[in-house]
Sequence to fold (282 residues):
Amino acid sequence: MDKLIITAAITGSHITRQQTPYIPITPEEIVASSEACWRAGAAIVHLHVRDPSTGQGTQDLELFRRVVEPLRARTDLILCLTTSGIPGRNLPTDERLVVLELRPDLASLDAGTLNLGGRVFANTPDFLDEAAERMIVQGVKPELEVFDSGMAVACLRMRAEGKLNDPLHVQFVLGTPWGAPATAKALVHLTDFLTEDATWSVAGVGRHQLSMGTLALVMGGHIRVGLEDSIYYQRGELATSNAQLVERVVCMAEVFGRSVADPSEAREMLGLTEPGHQRESA
Ligand code: ZN
Fold:
């Protein structure tokens, strides 16, 4: 079985300090938490940034730069920057895609529209086309975030139309209130859509983080954990850091006899160029 790629989703866009005091908010906190995850065994960090004055998610390029530059200097982490903006707020396309200017290794691409947080998280066909095209132009690999089977179908159609290049990398996000459930049946069903050389990972939302991770571990998929997806370590007990959640996955991998990929191994598995290559031409 392939080595396990662990992604840490550091902060997301909406968890507040009232919900958990451990959520990183400032660029410095996001960098420190990412670095700790790297030391713990994460190969990828999935990054949002927060406006330090409001604590809410933002697509402010300078804030992203204040996270990306120190992480590039201090780690060899694979950086995956969000293009979600703030789900439900539906920011203009240019604002969502501004992060591509930083030439990250990966950028998230939410593969369709769904209800989220009581609102519509709009990812129209036009947006998907525009985002996919700009990612190809900028040399950024999309991480296809798939919340239900219709989104998997959309990815395959875009691939057939030449808008997405092989090998695809898919992040199944399961257990949101209006998306596919976090069940073994749903995960197996979704993986049936994958193309032969695609890589996939799963993010179980909330209390599903552990069960979905365990399934991915034995199915040969990869795992995303982090405070963006679940603020609890276990029932009734807050996770005290992102690294704590990464450490648990590393222990699970050891128990199941699966080795953990370091960033350079993960880069090769995902078909990414070496760090620095894209930046030199940027
Ligand atoms: Zn995210």
